[in-house]
Amino acid sequence: MSARLAVYAGSFDPPTFGHLDLVDRASKLFPEVIVAVGIHPTKSALFSTEDRLSLLTEICKPFGNVRVDSFRGLLIDYVKRQNARVIVRGLRAGTDFEYELQIAHANADLRPEIDTVFLPTRTNYGFISASLVREIAMHGGDIERYAPPNVCAALKKKFAGS
Question: Which residue ranges in the chain fall short of pLDDT 70?
């Protein structure tokens, strides 16, 4: 297992500046980072997996040590297959911590050799969530301060005529 490699996973539906901030910070903490889109067959996503991968690939270009991928099944199994040693998770509020801690404990029980690192979001991104950005965009609101330009354009196109 490589302590050099960390995995930051999520649905990224859509990617936000909060996600990008965590990518930036993880890329400074770890020599290699995989940003991994989780594919959940029971959840209905606004953007296809391919669209999310494309949006993430574009916004992660400035980070030479970051690559984008997708996975099905348990994150902990994906991390093991990638030979990574660390899972990076972002925390916006105390309620995130309780949920994320429960998952971190389950992951540690399944694969004790893999650690979870929590990064609190920066204050200015603490309230931003993908669902909030989707909701504002759906109603024609201005999301430029919440998501990168390519994501804003994709959302505008997605909701055109709504």
Answer: 2, 161-162
